[in-house]
Amino acid sequence: MARPPFKPTDEQRNLVKELAAVGAPHKLIARKLGIRSPKTLRKHFRDELDLGSMEVNAHVAKYLYQSAKAGNVEAQKSWLRSRAGWGTHTRHPTTDRPPFIVAHEEPNEPCCHENPDEILPRITSSSVRQILYARRDL
Predict the structure, then answer these.
(1) What is this structure's pTM?
(2) For the residues 77-89, what does the mean pLDDT come to?
(3) 68, 79 in Cβ contact below 8 A?
(4) How far apart are CA 136 and CA 138, in angstroms?
(5) Rounded distance, CA 3 to CA 9, Å?
C-alpha cells in the first residue's frame, strides 16, 4: 500500500525555519520531522529552508547596525570587517626572493679577454637600469 502524501503543518513550517536559521543540516531536520529523505524535506519546505537563515541574519545585522550607531566600538569594528572589507591583515613577503630581477646572460667569450671599449656599446639602457636598481637596494 502506498504512503499518503506528506502535508506540512504550520507548526512544522516554523520548526523547519528555526532549525534552518541556526544551520541545522537538512538530514537532521528531516529526521526531527519524521521524514525519511532530505529530498522530501526540500520539496515541501523549500521557502522555510531558504528564508530561515536569511531572516535571522537580517535581524542580527539590524541589531549590530543599531549597536554600532549607538557607539559600541566592537559592533563598529565587526560591521566594518564584515561589510566594508576592513581587516587586521599584516602584509608579509610571500617568498624569499629579492624585490628585483637580475637578468643572467652567459658571455660569448671570457670577460678577461674582452676590451672594455668593445663592451660598453653592448650595454643596453635596460642593463644599466637593472644595475642601478640593484645597487639602490644594497
Answers:
(1) 0.50
(2) 78
(3) yes
(4) 6
(5) 17
